[in-house]
Design goal:
The chain is built from five helices and 43 strands. The chain is mainly beta. It folds into four domains: 102 residues, Immunoglobulins (Immunoglobulin-like); 109 residues, Immunoglobulins (Immunoglobulin-like, Sandwich), CATH 2.60.40; 290 residues, Distorted Sandwich (Beta-galactosidase, Chain A, domain 5); 79 residues, Immunoglobulin-like, CATH 2.60.40.4070. An eight-stranded antiparallel beta sheet has the order 26-27-28-29-36-33-32-31. Strands 22, 24, 25, 30, 34 and 35 form a six-stranded antiparallel beta sheet that branches. A five-stranded mixed beta sheet has the order 3-11-9-6-7, with no helix packed on it. A hairpin with a 6-residue loop joins strand 32 and strand 33. It holds the Pfam family Por_Secre_tail.
Length: 606
């Protein structure tokens, strides 16, 4: 019982006042394989059974117990110069530690693990993360931290679990000079479909050179095959993202998610939130409150599950998914591609960014659209009736705090576009609790900036809304980007300061894409076939007058990849784009001809 009260049942507990151990060991040794002689005493007398440990980072680790003479011999092999730590511990004894100096001996190599990564291009979901059922290229890098070259180094891999397969597990690394690195990309690894998503299976690496051999174990992270909910956790705040347009929690069948939290272990300060899109009372798409506070709209439906992506835009975490308006009574064939990201940079870790690319896949234009986020923050989950809400036009944000605690401010900020933003505080006694509930007409009035207050008029239960618009979406894949951030801070001033930093971070890292999105319209005289495409894209352009044509191809991060040119003036131009080594995704064709400048969005599918 006493052991369990202290936590660890194996914890060694003093049964009498402890006495001090004393290590007797030489001060300096040379690098190389050797037997280290150590003596342990107590008040000058030898100690039987003391545990002695020798340790040097990535080179030496050996332990043994002293004999009746207080002596132990440890087989060690330090390779580099530096410090070697020797410790002695024992029951009812205070430990002792000595630091030995390792000086240069005979030069020799020492190969250590540097990093491992996955290239899964060509798979169903290429994201740099091996997922169940995927096969990828394993790039493994090692470093020689020793003092001599490792000649003719050869690598052999042994998976520790049976559901990781490496058909050809050997690779030649060649000669690795001291201080240099070597890498191989010739290894192919397969994660079996039954492997546990989110696990980190180990792989044993054995490297042999003409001089010596080494072993180390590294882990491969197995991703998830796609989820309805996933988390962006910056360590300072965390937000659950869903694949159905809701934010914080998914309420399709059961309530899944953890909301929006200021700390990983905190309770959620968000009850429910949703992306909202509409251009009339008859067409409002969302997953927010409807006729009753216990009922939610289910207009957004899942199109593509959430996937963990290789971080982009200088983020630390990156999620991608998609949903459509198919659940609306009168769907318009809208697809929303969603990206969620966060960073752990100091001072930039108190916000999570949501980027939505709204795409009209229909054959009719949609004009006068507004897009926004409705959010019901219960800043303190058990005290929802003591909240205050306010807005800031300068920071384009609506946010809330609880008067009982005062050190938790949460809100939503509009990041893009720059067109008119509408900020509102929504009184639950007027728009949520009455029998009429929050109708689509009310939601559309909020989207346009006709419903809600700039600030709460009393302590009560509130929601906030942040929207932008109007904008037009022409038919056939015209698109508009909107972006928001969920922001958290401890007081009003730091909240607004965080909003400003968030805008600066977005403008620097994400905003480069925005000009291409906002310029996409149905280009006159320009057709591309097929779209989406897998290998080659045929581009036809018919200008109004004879002219040459220049086409530049950009990716979604604004990077230029290809230039296509038809230099002879004419009334008909046909160009073929056949990208060989580009990843699947969205690309933009910028067509320049005489006084014409057009942008066409295309999708490369692998």
């Amino acid at each position: 019982t006493e052991f369990n009260l202290l936590g660890d049942p194996t914890l060694d507990i003093w049964s009498e006042p402890p006495t001090q151990l004393c290590l007797d060991v030489q001060d300096t040794i040379r690098s190389g394989s050797q037997l280290l002689h150590v003596r342990v005493t107590e008040s000058g007398n030898p100690v039987l059974g003391a545990l002695v440990c020798a340790w040097k980072n990535r080179e030496v680790y050996d332990t043994s117990h002293t004999n009746s003479s207080g002596i132990v011999n440890l087989q060690i092999h330090p390779v580099t110069i530096g410090s070697l730590s020797i410790t002695a511990t024992g029951h009812n004894r205070l430990p002792d530690r000595k630091i030995m100096t390792v000086i240069a001996g005979t030069p020799e190599p020492l190969i250590t693990f540097l990093h491992a990564s996955i290239n899964d291009q060509g798979q169903h979901h290429p994201n740099g993360i091996l997922e169940p059922g995927e096969t990828g290229q394993l790039i493994l890098a090692v470093r020689n931290i020793g003092t001599a070259s490792a000649a003719n180094a050869r690598l052999t891999l042994h998976p520790i679990v049976t559901n990781i397969l490496i058909p050809d597990s050997t690779a030649e690394l060649g000669t690795i000079p001291a201080g240099d690195t070597a890498a191989t990309n010739s290894l192919i690894v397969t994660a079996m479909p039954d492997i546990l998503p989110g696990s980190d299976p180990g792989i044993l690496a054995h490297i042999q050179s003409d001089e010596n051999e080494w072993e180390f174990t590294f882990a491969l992270h197995i991703g998830f095959p796609g989820r309805v909910t996933a988390e962006i956790d910056t360590t300072a705040c965390a937000l659950t993202v869903t694949a159905r347009g809701a934010i914080g929690f998914d309420n399709e069948d059961t309530r899944e998610g953890r909301g929006f939290r200021l700390q990983e272990t905190d309770t959620s300060s968000l009850n429910i939130a949703s992306l909202c899109l509409g251009n009339s009372a008859d067409y409002v798409v969302d997953r927010f409150y409807t006729a009753s506070e216990t009922e939610l709209d289910h207009d957004w439906t899942l199109n593509e599950s959430l996937y963990v992506m290789a971080p982009a835009w200088n983020s630390r975490q990156f999620l991608k998914g998609a949903f459509t308006d198919a659940g609306h009574p009168h769907p318009e064939n809208i697809l929303v591609v969603q990206r969620a990201l966060g960073t752990d940079e100091p001072d930039n870790d108190r916000f999570v960014i949501l980027v939505y690319d709204i795409i009209n896949r229909g054959t009719q234009p949609l004009d006068g659209l507004y897009a926004g986020i409705l959010a019901d923050f219960d800043v303190t989950a058990t005290d929802r009736f003591h909240d205050l809400a306010q807005t800031s036009t300068e920071c384009r944000t609506a946010y809330m705090h609880n008067v009982s605690i005062g050190n938790r401010f949460c809100g939503v900020k509009l990041l893009y576009p720059d067109i008119a933003s509408h900020l509102a505080c929504i009184d639950h006694s007027l728009y949520i609790y009455p029998d009429s509930g929050l109708s689509d007409d009310m939601k559309f009035r909020w989207l346009k900036g006709e419903l809600g207050l700039p600030g709460s008029d009393r302590v009560y239960n509130w929601s906030v809304g942040v929207s932008a618009g109007p904008f037009d979406l022409h038919e056939n894949n015209s698109a508009q980007r909107v972006a928001f951030a969920f922001v958290a801070a401890q007081d009003s001033n730091s909240y607004l300061a965080t909003c400003r930093r968030c805008q600066e971070w977005f403008n620097t890292n994400v905003g480069i894409v925005a000009p291409y999105m906002s310029r996409i319209r149905k280009p006159s005289g320009l057709t591309v076939q097929p779209n989406p495409f897998t290998r080659s894209l045929t581009i036809h352009y018919h200008p109004d007058s004879p002219t040459s044509v220049n086409i530049e191809v950009y990716d979604a991060a604004g990077r230029l990849h290809t230039r296509l040119t038809s230099s002879e003036p004419g009334l008909e131009h046909t160009l073929i784009w056949s990208p060989a080594n580009l990843a699947a995704g969205v690309y933009f064709l910028e067509v320049t001809a005489k006084d014409t400048d057009l942008v066409q969005r295309v999708i490369l599918a692998r």
